[in-house]
Amino acid sequence: MLPSAADYVIVGAGSAGCVLANRLTEDPGTSVVLIEAGGKDSGLNVRIPLAFPNLFHGPLDWNYETDPEPACHDRRLYVPRGKCLGGSSAMNAMLYVRGRPSDYDGWADDGATGWGWADVKPYFLKAESNSRGASDDHGADGPLHVQDAKSPRALNRRIVDGFVASGVDRNPDYNGPRQDGAGMFQVLQRDGRRWSAADAYLHPVRKRPNLSVVTHGQVERVEHDGDRATGVRYRDRKGELHVIRANREVLLSAGAIGSPQLLMLSGIGAAGKLRQHGITPLHDLSAVGQNLQDHPMLTVLWAVSETDTLYGADKPRRLLEWLLRRSGPLTSTAAESVAFWRSRPELPAADIQFHCGALFYEKHGAETYDGHAMTIAPVLLTPKSRGRVTLRSPHADDAPSILTNTLHEREDVDAMVAAIRMARRVAASGPLRATVERELRPGSEHESDEQLEASLRDRIELIYHPVGTCRMGAADDPNAVVDPELRVRGIDGLRVIDASVFPTIPGGNTHAPTVMVAERAADLLRGRTPLHDASVTTGVGA
After folding, report:
1. Of 223, 394, 504, 528, which one is least surrounded by beta carbons within 10 A?
2. Among all residues, which ones are annotated catalytic?
């Protein structure tokens, strides 16, 4: 029987919501209701690492897309978001990347007091169970299993060698003291299968008597009494309305698209725009939905003579190998090797992350190639462009309007063009020269900067890292939605705890930072003194 009230009501069982549900219910006297719009995270496509593209556009995907992007030839860019227990961690590529210390010191410098590297590093370590063991840079006892790839393709190590031959340092641990360099990805897996936030945090505690989990619950708005949040209203899969009261607080963990949408549906946002949709403003907070950031990605593709690639990984014998031994190509995350690189030497940190793999990966895996291939995909880590999320209608089941303004800024374009040229240099290097047969995308006909820019605007995609739409900042910052304790400005009893609070996007994949935010938020909610690493020297390490 679902309770009518709980101490905390959490909206969204994704990377952050699963962490909160676990940590808050460690105290038997604290009750939690966790509401998820999707259903269970079951099925082989969730469990098998290489099957993640099969989840795109399916029932476990919110299946968002942007409005026509002016700087991308008016194309709509795909924004997949997980709609099940585990959220996007149940359908991502499982790559474990924290970002740079300077990312978090920048958050603190911009008003997010208490979120510098010395403050957040202990929470990365607390969450992590790294197969390499404990060290000053890694944890070994946390819920998140972080491992080296179980069955990597040998071509990926030659790709790393190609980066080294092209002037990039070899770096076996990009989550260690420095990020720059080339090496192999560590992945969020356990024994060759996906290890999502639900696997790590939620499923082990589902039977706690103080935790109730609602699936297929579409939250429509936050309920309030004056300027205090009192609970949430949601509709179940039968269409019936329910209200769950929060005795202490409502915690929005619906992600960088869902959390600002729910705030606006609840009357918290730019008052004039809310009135246009017939919503009575509760609190005029114009920053809600602004500051949207994501990492743009372009795949550069070659046909190769190497036969040990992921081509044919979907054959029945490969599935049997995974089912029996949890090994083989299906344990791959598609991108197995990585390089962090500066498009200009004077930059303070890498602005490009190359995701590399022994496969053909185009249009989010929807386009195929009949043969062996290699991908070196530059990703822009520090986009200058900013977008927004706004309401399209006053109904929770209507997707909001999303615009990223990808490639709007000249600096972003120049960095990506330079990265395409670097990818070509790596492919032509000694370690890969005998393997690479011909360039498939963008193709040898694109040679000048102008031609590469045109191809970039025509093919650029996003790499599934939306953040920033409920920006964290100083309590008096008009461009901040939440304060450094993640409380929504002007509303009591309401916090946002997910990737939407990131002031700026970190230099890497965003799952690990989202888990970190939720781990630290749980301590704030429980009134515990936040962890701090006094040994960290601020500003050391890019």
Report:
1. 528
2. 465
